[in-house]
Amino acid sequence: MTGERHAGGCQCRAVRFAIEGPLRDVLYCHCGRCRKSHGGVAAYSACERANVIFESDDELRWFESPDPSDSARRGFCGRCGSRLFWERADRTTISIAAGSIDEPTGLRAAAHIFCAHRGDYYEIADGLPCFDEYSAS
Fold first, then answer.
1. Residues 71 and 22 sit within 8 Å (Cβ to Cβ)
2. 20 strand-pairing partners
3. Hey, which residues does 10 pair with through a beta bridge?
4. CA 20 to 30 Å from 70, out of 9, 34, 134, 135?
């Protein structure tokens, strides 16, 4: 997907953002941190951080884990609790919860990551590629 503008935000609309430029297709993340944060599998697109323009972000909050092995922070709405972003300081990209992007998104599911960490209460059976880890390189 290239050259398009997308909009998105949280459930209560207190956090709204626009995305200028291309979005990566959706990755489903099965890691334990995403499952704890989202209450299930997380679905994320991504783009260059500089391409995200916040239109209203007074309620945007960031959670930074005290666990030193978790170098990411997670953005959410402080009013309604919607999970919106996942970001690492050592990358120029930001992951955006696919469900927070207004439709039509034009996105497609691309793969599953951290499949070795999936919950024991479900199977991955949609035929998409499945990786035990993930590398953004």
1. no
2. 5
3. none
4. 9
Collapsed DSSP state (helix, strand, coil) of residue 131:
coil
* C-alpha span between 40 and 20 (Å, rounded): 29
Q: Which CATH class is domain 5-117?
A: mainly beta
pLDDT higher than 90, residue 63:
yes
Q: What is the pTM of this model?
A: 0.91
Q: d(Cα 119, Cα 106) in Å, to the nearest integer? A: 28
Q: Compute CA distances 37 → 1, 19, 31, 53, 128, whole Å.
A: 28, 23, 10, 24, 23
Domain borders along the chain are 5-117
User: What is the C-alpha to C-alpha distance for residues 4 and 14, in angstroms, rounded to an integer?
Assistant: 23
Tokens 């993930």 locate to 134
User: From the DSSP assignment, how many helices (H) and strands (E) are in the chain?
Assistant: 1, 10
Q: What's the distance, CA 12 to chain centroid?
A: 18
pLDDT tens for each residue of 81-111: 999 999 988 899 999 999 999 999 999 999 9
R_g over Cα of the chain: 15
Amino acid type, 23 = L
